[in-house]
Amino acid sequence: MAMQPNDIKIKHWCFRPIETTQIDYTWIIDNFSGELSPISSPDFSSRTQNTHFKLRLQMNEINSSNHNGFYSILIIFLSTVKRPLTIKFIFSIVDNNGKKARSICDEVTYDGREPSPITFITKRDLIANKDKLLPNDRLTLLCGMSVIEKGEEISGQTRNANLRIPESDLPDNLEYIFVNKIQCDVELIVGPDDKKIQAHKAILVARSSHFRGMFENDTEESKNNQVTIMNFSPDMINEMLKFMYTDRVDNLDDTAKDLFIIANYYDLERLNIMCQESLTRNLTIENCAETLLLADLHNADALRRRTLDFINRHAKEVVQTAGFQAIDENHPRLAIEISTISRNNPMICPVLSAIDHLFLNSKLSDVTLVIGEEQLFAHKVVLAAQSPTFAGYFETSKTLNRLEILNIESVIMKEVLAFFYTGVLREEDDIIIVLKVLAVAEIYKIRKLKELCVSNLLKKISIDTVVPILIEAGDYSVPELSKKALDFIQTNKAKILSLDNFKLLCSKKPELLFKILALDIQK
Fold first, then answer.
1. Which residues fall within 8 angstroms of residue 426, CB to CB, at 6 or more apart?
2. How far apart are CA 428 and CA 418, in angstroms?
3. 44 has which bridge partners?
4. How far apart (Å, rounded) are the C-alpha atoms in residues 303 and 309?
5. HSE-up of 313 (CA within 13 Å, CB side)?
6. Of 22, 307, 411, 440, which is most buried, counting CB atoms within 10 Å of its CB?
7. How confident is the model at residue 515 (pLDDT cuts 50, 70, 90)?
8. Running DSSP on this structure, what letter comes out for residue 189?
9. CB 401, CB 366: distance < 8 Å
10. Taking the model in full, what pTM does it have?
C-alpha cells in the first residue's frame, strides 16, 4: 500500500527555518539644519514580527571649524530577540523631485550588542546640495530593511513533516517570456543601427521610474509603443532588460561599468548598487582612476569614497598610471578635490600638475579676487576646501563670483593662493612675508596654513627676528610661539634690549614688556 504524504512521520523535529521580514519606513526630519545633536526617529516595527526599531542620525565631526565630517545612521533595537538577527538595509535620501538621490546598502548582525553606526553621507555633500537634498530644510530618509531571523535547532515530540516548498521560479518564467518574446507590447529601437528589442510595458513600468513616467503619461512613446535609445549599445540594453525581468545579471564583473551608467540613467537602484559593489570589489591600480571619475560623474558617494580610500592606500603606484594622469590633465576640478582630500599623502600631491597650472590662471576660474587694481583668478572649490570663511561666502551666495579683498597686499594674497594650490609656503625664508601670511591665515581661518607659518617661525627665531615674531604671536593667539620667543629674549636679553626694534615692542606691546620683567622677577 502506497504511503500518503500525511503518513510521513519523524520522531525528532530539529530545525526551525529562516524567517525574513521586509520593512519599509520613511523618516521625515523638518528644520534639519537647526539640529546639532543626534536625532532619533519614532519607533517602528514589522507587520509580522513583534520586533521594534528606531533610527538615530548623528553628526561625526572631523574638524568642527570646517565642513569636514559625515552623518552616520545607527539602527537601534527596542525589542529583546531570542536568536541573532541579520538586517540587510538600503538607506536613501529622497530629493526635491521625490527620487532617491543618495543610497547606501549594507548589512548588520544583532546578537544582543548594539551594532556600529553606518557611515551615510558627508556633511560637505549635504551642504553643497541642500537645495536638492534638503528642500525647505526638510530631510526625507527612506529605509528598506530585510530582517532575517536565523533558524534554530529544537527537539520535540513526533509530528508530521512539512512538505518542502520549492524555490520561486518566477524569475525563470519571466526570463522565458522575455527571451521568447511572448505577448510583447513595446519595442525598443537601440543604437545607430536601430536594433529592435521587444519587451513588456508592465515590466518596464514596474521596475523603472524612468519608464513609469514615460508610459503613464501622454508621450509619443506611450502612443506609438516605441522607445528610441541612442546613447547605449543594444548589448547593454539587452542586459539591463534581463535584469529587469529576472533580478539577475550574468558576468556582472565584465559589464559593471556600462550597466552602472545605464542603471543610473533609468533609476534602477538595485542594479546601480550591485554594479557599485562589483566595481569596488574589482578595484586595481590601473582602473581606480577611471572608477573614481565614473563615481564622480554619477554622484555615487559610496563608490567614490571607497575608490578614494583605495587611491590613498596605493598612492605611490596609482599616481604613475595613465588613468590618473588623464584626470590630472582633463578633469582639473576633480584633481583639485583629490589634492585637498589627500594633502597629507606626499605620494599624491606632487603629481597633480593641473593644480599648479590653475594657480592664478583664468582656465575654469569661477571667482575673481580684486585687490586694488589687480585681479587674481581662483576657483571656489579650492578656496572653500581650505578656508571655512570662503566656504561661508560661497554658501551664502551661490552666484558670488567676485570678491574685493581689503587691507591685504597683493603679494601676500598670492602667497596664500599659492599655498591653496600647492600646499607649500614659497617664501618661507622671508620672515616679514611669513608673518603677514600668518595674519591672513588667522583672518580667513586657514588652519593648515597657520600651522605651517608657526612651524616655520619657530625655527627662525633669532636676535633679529624675535621681536616681530613675539608681537605677531600675541596678536594671533599662538602661545607656543610666544613662549619660545620670550624664552629666547630671556636668554639673550643683553643683546636684544639694545636693538631698535625692542623699542618698537615697548611702544606697540607694553604688556609684553611686563611679561619679560615678570620673568626676571620669577628668576
1. 415, 418
2. 12
3. 53
4. 10
5. 10
6. 307
7. low
8. E
9. yes
10. 0.46
